[in-house]
Amino acid sequence: MADKLLSRYEELKAQINEHNYRYHVLDAPIVSDLEYDRLLNELKKIEADHPEWITPDSPTQRAGAKPSEKFEKVRHPAPILSLANAFGADDTRAWFERVKKLDDRVERASFVVEPKIDGLSVVLHYHDGQFVQGATRGDGEVGEDITTNLRTVRAIPLRIPVSKSAKTQVPKTLVVRGEAFIPNKDFEALNKKLEEAGEKTYLNPRNTAAGSLRQLDPVLTASRPITLLVYQIVYSDGGKVPTSQWEILEYLKSLGFPVTDVAKRFDDLNEAIAYTETFDKGRDALPYEADGMVIKIDDLTLAADLGFVGKDPRGAIAFKFPAREVTTTLLGIDVEVGRTGVLTPKAALEAVEIGGVVVRNATLHNFDFIEEKDIRIGDRVLVKRAGEVIPYIIGPVVDARSGKEKKYKPPTKCPACGQPVEHFEGEVAWYCVNAACPAQLVRNVEHFVSRGSMDIVGLGIKIVEQLIEAELVNDVADLFTLKKSQLLELEGFAEKKAENLLGSIEQAKGQSLNRLITALGIHGVGEVMAGDLARTYGNVTALSKTTADELQQIEGVGPNIAESIVDWFARPVNQKLLKKLKAAGVDPQMQKDEKKKDGVFTGLTFVVTGTLPNFSRDDAKAFIEGNGGKVTDSVSKKTSYLVLGENPGSKFEKAQSLGIKIIDEAELKQLAK
Ligand code: IVH
Description:
Number of strands: 24
Shape: elongated
Largest sheet: 7 strands, antiparallel
Bound molecules: 2-(butylsulfanyl)adenosine
Oligomer: single chain
Structural class: alpha+beta
CATH class of the largest domain: Alpha Beta
């Protein structure tokens, strides 16, 4: 009976270990989580009755060990070497030329190219196929014993070969080396979880993996999504192992170790370099951080014969990608006023080179970010520059603090115009809402004259800039008092051009109230809402006297938008602007409560996103309203249809997530029939 149970126990261990391997190494599980748990529970039950049977390779022995007091030292059976770096193709060829001179065989050598993962180098010891010890690299001679932590890493086989069917022979002693790391996706998920729990997030996958493996409580390590890839046999005794790098990778794989699947062998160095370069460009395609590729001479006997320079073997070279993350000092924080009035904090940095470009500034995203990450002036900060992305700050290097760093307070006034800044509920950004703010003037005028607004033809961004530069325009109302003589003084203006422009400005005085309200650029007020406001109030003066409560009677106006509207009209600068507009003859009136037509769309609400094939936005709106429907700016549960065009925005995803019916222009027309 006990015999039978014991053999069941052995079978369960082997089965679970194999499922583990399929899940964590091959990424190809064949049982559901439920079935897996069932097997594990059966195993745990047997172990509870027979604790004397438990062996270290039992899957239950991965986590749960007690925290250590400190890590013991481990002497490596052979030096754990490092690699010389090459920066670019020429550097790599220079390495090849150097080693070629030392040995004729190099001329005919093949190369294996592998990713150089940015993680923590670990050394794993197997005795009689059992995982018995795991260590950090340390100084290359002596490392730290982190066996209990490494046991929690499920990609590490506790017994090799993992698969019983594997024919591969295992030496009595086998010591392998690999790189432990956290995949990018898992790192992001971990940070997201921490953020949601209100806890501090981690800076990057590398530090997190290294930190998690080098702390004393294995339970904590077990909770981190650490995995690894192995690439080297450091030592073996009592059995044969292959003598080429390519075969070593195959061999390690057959034993059940996780091995990179992007390694390739080349007979020609230039091809190896070309392959490496494709990874530099497509670095983000790798599921983990790699700081380069390693080019290794495949023949390991030859590689060993070439010897070392210090700790760097001559037989391999690290082809480094330009760094994307560096640390530098945060000298100060500047505040920029963006096109929409958003204030963005910008880091002024001690100049630093990242990937061949000198970086002096980086974005800090928003003021909440500075607060959350506790970024202080004078901090050493980690800066990342990847591809075309603007460099950004990842966070402070807290350990590097001297105590002299200063906390930062966000501005309460716009740095460009001195007006108080505003915050809208539900948004992280702070805004300058002063329409006359010089930093925003260009964009304000641009918006004011744009097609959906006052539609002043012939007033492009260049001319807007010219007018502001010449101080002819200090707010949008100044457009209506421009004189021909003034325009003629500007570069590029002749009689005809000046007359045309003044003509279209004159014409704009007759634009509808909807358009004027849209043109004012009040935060949260788009074309559709402007139409509702126009119908409700009839003119700008009446609208300017309204209250937040009254505004909220209008469908689609919530407390945030109501407050934003009231605030806008309360500002003296904006009141002055309205007076000037009125004086210039811009004061459109509208029949109040103009009834909307009834039709097939009565009671239905539409949102339009993307570019439609035939309809412009205005056309689509007119079509829907003409059939009695309503058009709103944002998708909600109340939306009846989303009309989808090309290059849709986030409204599309939102509609999908809410299960809103999605139609195209043709279907919209069909519906109206
Ligand atoms: S080979 C002789 N291969 O890069 C063997 N190293 O300084 C020397 N690394 O600390 C190392 N991926 O931890 C090698 N595929 C790979 C690697 C790799 C990452 C790390 C290793 C070492 C550093 C080189």
